[in-house]
From TrEMBL, chain B:
Protein name per the record: ATP synthase subunit a
Cell compartments where the protein resides: Cell membrane
Entry function: Key component of the proton channel; it plays a direct role in the translocation of protons across the membrane.
Pfam families linked: ATP-synt_A (PF00119)
Species this protein is from: Colwellia asteriadis
Transmembrane annotation, as ranges: 27-48, 88-106, 136-153, 198-218, 224-251
Keywords attached to this entry: ATP synthesis, Cell membrane, CF(0), Hydrogen ion transport, Ion transport, Membrane, Transmembrane, Transmembrane helix, Transport
Topology term for the membrane: Multi-pass membrane protein
HAMAP family to which the protein is assigned, alphabetical: ATP_synth_a_bact (MF_01393)
UniProt record similarity statement: Belongs to the ATPase A chain family.
CDD domains: ATP-synt_Fo_a_6 (cd00310)
Recorded coiled-coil stretches: none
InterPro entries for this protein: ATP_syn_F0_a_bact/chloroplast, ATP_synth_F0_asu, ATP_synth_F0_asu_AS
Length: 156, 256
């Protein structure tokens, strides 16, 4: 073991190397490493957030779908109800209309019949008078009587 | 063997443990230790700098991934031990870890390869593993020790630092000198153990490699086994040096 000036030469080299490392080597490398670590951490956090958002969105979509289904069911229900009501109303209206038409028809028929009856009555009276006139014209002929009566009958 | 068969194994080992030296006595410089360590330090800094220059926060390339793995490993080690805020600790730990790792890794290069290549150019001695030179490991430990003292004084103040050295573990004033001696031993043992641990492990490893190289043909499987064992030793020693540095500096920041 012979210690000599080499020691101080090496000491100077050591100091220079450490200073160079401290100034030009360590900071850029550790900076790059730490920046990358931060980027990766951010990325992981973002993907975590995205996964959470996705789950949330899926849940929301599910809830909305459920709600939509319920709404659709209620709409269909309401439509059915409305349809039934419309049909019922229409049926009621139709019934009323029918009754009205029937009643008018009946009334018309009645009037018509009454009028015909009146007319008939008047004609019967005329016929009776005419018959009587003819009977009176040929009162002796029995066969003729029946002729007249037959005519009368035919005239009815 | 580098210089032919005329060397005895003792001379061979001695030759391989000799540094390429310029100058005499204390003013001598180990050119091989300095050269290899600075070369490896530049390999570390420039390769990491190439990543740092075009570091992307997006998808990293393969080389950037490898560098980031090491940086993150060091950063985790620092964060698990050192809880204060200090912009020096982490780059210091990274430099120590990678630099020591690369210097230790020179142990894997066959012991005769580099000396032989240099001998072709007339360079007689060439010790290629800088951490087998105590100058190298003591330089690292001394650097760490200076930082320990600096931060101890910066965080606790000069009075606080002296108080820490004298008022524990015994609370009574008459025992303060004893405390001071004990604490000084603790304080000085830190860089000493740091330097000697690394030096001892690598020097012993290198010595065994040299011993194996002297046993002839059977050295190949034995070399392989010893090199495989160094898969453990080399990163472990680099890691221990880094962790203890972080720990000592973390202790220096703690205010009692």
């Amino acid at each position: 073991m012979n210690i000599n000036m080499t020691l101080f030469g090496e000491l100077i080299a050591f100091v220079v190397f450490v200073i160079f490392c401290m100034k030009y080597v360590w900071p850029p490398i550790i900076g790059a490493i730490e920046a990358r670590q931060a980027t990766i951490a951010d990325g992981l956090a973002a993907s975590d957030r995205a996964a959470k958002d996705l789950a949330l969105a899926q849940e929301k979509a599910k809830a909305q779908l459920k709600e939509a289904k319920v709404q659709a069911a209620s709409i269909v229900e309401a439509a059915k109800k409305h349809e039934a009501k419309v049909i019922e109303e229409a049926a009621g209206k139709a019934q009323v209309e029918k009754d009205r038409i029937l009643a008018t028809g009946h009334a018309e028929i009645e009037t018509e019949r009454n009028r015909a009856k009146e007319e008939l009555r008047a004609q019967v009276a005329l016929l009776a008078v005419a018959g009587a006139e003819k009977i009176l014209e040929r009162s002796i002929d029995a066969a003729a009587h029946s002729d007249i009566l037959d005519k009368l009958v035919a005239e009815l | 063997m580098a210089s032919g068969a005329e060397l005895t194994s003792q001379e061979y080992i001695k030759h391989h443990l000799q540094n390429l030296t310029v100058g005499e006595g204390f003013w001598a410089l180990h050119i091989d230790t300095l050269g290899w360590s600075i070369f490896l330090g530049l390999v570390f800094l420039l390769s990491f700098r190439s990543v740092a220059k075009k570091a992307t926060t997006g998808v990293p390339g393969k080389w950037q991934c490898a560098v980031e793995m090491i940086v993150e490993f060091v950063d985790d080690s620092v964060k698990s031990t050192f809880h204060g805020k200090n912009p020096v600790i982490a780059p210091l730990a990274l430099t120590i870890f990678v630099w020591v790792l690369l210097m230790n890794a020179m142990d894997w290069v066959p012991v005769d390869l580099i000396p032989t290549i240099f001998s072709w150019f007339g360079v007689e001695y060439m010790k290629a593993v800088p951490t087998t030179d105590p100058n190298m490991t003591f330089a690292l430990a001394l650097g760490v020790f200076i930082l320990i003292i600096y931060y101890s004084i910066k965080v606790k103040g000069i009075g606080g630092f002296i108080k820490e050295l004298t008022t524990q573990p015994f609370g009574h004033w008459s025992l303060y000198p004893v405390n001071f001696i004990l604490e000084m031993v603790t304080l000085l043992a830190r860089p000493l153990s740091l330097a000697l641990r690394l030096f001892g492990n690598l020097y012993a490893g290198e010595l065994i490699f040299l011993l194996i190289a002297t046993i002839g043909l059977f050295q190949l499987p034995v070399h392989f086994l010893w090199a495989a064992f160094h898969l453990l030793v080399i990163p472990l020693q680099a890691f221990i040096f880094m962790m203890l540095t972080i720990l000592y500096l973390s202790l220096a920041h703690e205010d009692h």
